[in-house]
Amino acid sequence: MTLNTLSTLLLVIATARITSAGISKRVTCPTGQTTANEACCVLFPILDDIQENLFDGGECGEEVHESLRLTFHDAIGFSPTKGGGGADGSIFYFADIETAFPANNGIDEIVHTQTSFINNHTTITAGDFIQFAGAVGVTNCPGAPRLEFLLGRPKATAASPPWLGTRASRHSYKHLGTVPRGQFLTRGGSGLASFVTGVPFDSTPGIFDTQFFIETQLRGIVFPGNGSNVGEAEAPLHGEMRLLSDSSLARDSRTACAWQSMAVGQANLQAKFKAAMSKMATIGNDRSKMVDCSDVIPVPKPVVGTPHLPAGKTMNDIEQACASAAFPSLTADPGPATSVPPVPPS
Length: 346
Known about the structure:
This protein is mainly alpha-helical. The protein has a single domain (38-317), classed as Peroxidase, domain 1 (Orthogonal Bundle), CATH 1.10.520.10. The protein contains 12 helices and 8 strands. It has helices spanning 3-24, 43-54, 62-75, 90-93, 95-98, 108-120, 126-138, 172-182, 211-215, 244-251, 256-261, 266-280; strands spanning 27-28, 34-35, 78-79, 83-85, 150-151, 232-233, 242-243, 291-292. The strands form 4 sheets. The chain has a two-stranded antiparallel sheet. Strand 1 and strand 2 (34-35) form a beta hairpin. Helix 3 (62-75) packs across helix 7. The longest helix is centred in the N-terminal third of the chain and has 22 residues, at 3-24. The model is unreliable at 8-23, 169-173, 177-189 and 226-232 (pLDDT under 50).
């Protein structure tokens, strides 16, 4: 090897080491945690606080469900022509106006719950807090993806106009009409964004799994006490509820096969949910002006269990809707017919 060749090789190695060091460089925050960007250090005290005091030490309970729901209701209030800043915290800053919208029915409870936390953590805006709490909360549910979180939403300056959100009672064609604005459709695993306090959409509300897509496809039974004030259809199991919109989406020819593909596709569900949340969480914001703080979000635990039919059900209870492929063959849990308990409060 010539001297010139050796010098060139050593230069390449040194450059590679410098580049690698630059890529992996971390900042140690005053709290002791590390992150790729110093601006993200403000999030660690908030993370510790909400995990302990909002999510009851890291439980996948009702506050997680409702915090996830709130990320949607704040972000969806956006229109280039009608106004609305999207994911900007306007549902907090103008709570008296926005929580009164029919599409935001019941959202006032989680807004009220998060208010003290938002007021205690003024290092970030309410828009950032709402999306951060949703991203952190869902990590308490085994099987969830680790969501992206970008920091830097400006403070909302005006309330969202009414009628920009979707109501639970609407049918699938109306939901599909809203997709170009938000560019997402996936609800998410295990019906985590519950619309009625304590009433789950599937039999595993504490796990981010595919059961929601299986159980929505089951033939429904009308149970005594199931009302219609929020647009729920008949449910497949005692203690469970089903929205008319979900039932319709699962059976609409335009979406039935995509819905069915989620029934046993945990990785597919995680990827689509993460992509949908990434788009939703930044509606109305300029991503190029935001700081990527995704490494602050905890890593969720792996999914618990495998896709299955609830006890007491058979494949004959599946209402086939996809015209191009049969529903995946599943076995039922042993035991008597499943009865779903309420989601416990955090």
